[in-house]
């Protein structure tokens, strides 16, 4: 296939009298939001990112749908036999996958178009560029689209416009020259070289796969020390590419001394606006856009979705709402056993594991809260009805852990209480779910699962007594969360008092808190399994809820201690968070521990009961104005709040710069 592609390209180039590089060999189809070869009639948008080309009187056009992250090419005013195709490059345009979707104008027609192809491959962490090419008595292509990465600003911005300046990793030296990596708080990076001489060079490398490779990202902004100077800096580049659904990119600074062939680079680093944003980007980096989950844990993916929903709710940012929606849409149907869970998923996120199903219900409650889309709340109701069907009179009540009715435990009843109370609080006029939530809490409180130390053991025996099994942080957290949500529903102060007792017991317990740091029983031996890796973040989610509800400063202080420990002892330069928040070696690290750490970082952020920071005076939106975070402006009759400092540009407006503004 490679030889055939090369031969066709060479023949076309010869016919045109042009010199054209050889495209890469044919590659497998790429799947992102959709798979390659989608019909353009299904495109949700149509834009023209580069000028069309006149090819011997024919119109050669590149079309893009940013909503679909796909492109297609067309040729018009032609004759039968004229052809059009796409090239897609994963590098800097020096190599590419060529002849994608090649189509020829059929008899009696004057134009045709290709099918759609993905511009990027986020599942494989590859950023792409595309162009349309045609053959009509000669071969010509449009310019490459999306050569630059654009987020808050586009690649190439002057570091003088940076918002903040931090150096996340130690600098490096070569022949006494100093090379440093700088980051601003919008995810932009630049490099500097100091103590140099004329001709010394400095540049950036950018990687979308955490430093494993950097095709198309080598020698970015490469610049030399000018005559008479001893230092120089590059322009800035982005590390997030929302158009390509690529988040959590990594950068490093590199340099070379004049006269030398070798160079030196800093370690890779991942920029971020703040602590929670750093953890959120690293968590999103592990998400599989094509299959819409985090492989390969089913219920854990629900908790990861919830964590990103919490991040959106806490910060007002909308970056990952597409991810929440995609997870819902691609997983709401029937999935066979072994595809995403050892159990079959029977539709509506339902399986034989009642607790797994409950985690998805809470995820969709949170999705409803941040989007107000009724489909999420309706799904939560469907799941809650399924869970309720496993309430019976064994041991006086409670929800079974599985369809086989083998165990009643803390996690399942905790999920049920939180869910049913949440539904009552979101469904006007409800009495049904309030009654179920109240019955659930009363049964749990009387079940004996809360031991004499105020800690929640795992479940009850067949004889309906506390089984004395492990006190897990997530069981403690769910009990807190259930009590808080039911307090919101009823106003019963005793429920908030119970939540505080459970939280205080955890914070003061040597079982769950060691040297001030929340600790799972499996942490010291680094033996936590894939489920246990996520437990502590769940506890912190509901401690955050209690801090918001009660206004008790001690809970935010405890959360801040966890966040500080994570940031100082349990995080690498790519903001990847491990299982053991106090640090130590070995320390398991994956997307589950990342979601858990995000929960802790969020719990330390200001809540609705914390003293607010007054925004600057409200003004009308305008271009070429510097806006401070928190600024409220009006535009077209709507009010918008600035999320991060920036200078507006001509052609921008709040609705189309969602990374910077939130509608109030």
**Whole-number mean pLDDT:** 92
Could you describe the largest sheet, including whether it forms a barrel? Answer: 5 strands, antiparallel
- Described by the principal axes of the CA atoms, the overall outline is globular
CA gyration radius, whole angstroms: 28 Å
Q: Extract low-pLDDT stretches.
A: 1-25
In percent, how helical is the residue content? Answer: 25-40%
Strand residues, percent = 15-25%
Number of strands: 28
Q: How far do the termini sit from each other? A: 54 Å
Signal peptide: 1-26
Protein name: Chitin-binding type-3 domain-containing protein
Pfam families: CBM_5_12, Glyco_hydro_76
Keywords: Hydrolase, Signal
Quick summary:
The chain is α+β, with helices and mostly antiparallel strands and 664 residues long. One of its GO terms (molecular function) is carbohydrate binding.
Keywords:
664 residues, alpha+beta, 5-stranded antiparallel sheet, 30% helix, globular, disordered N terminus, MUG_Protein, CBM_sf_5/12, carbohydrate binding
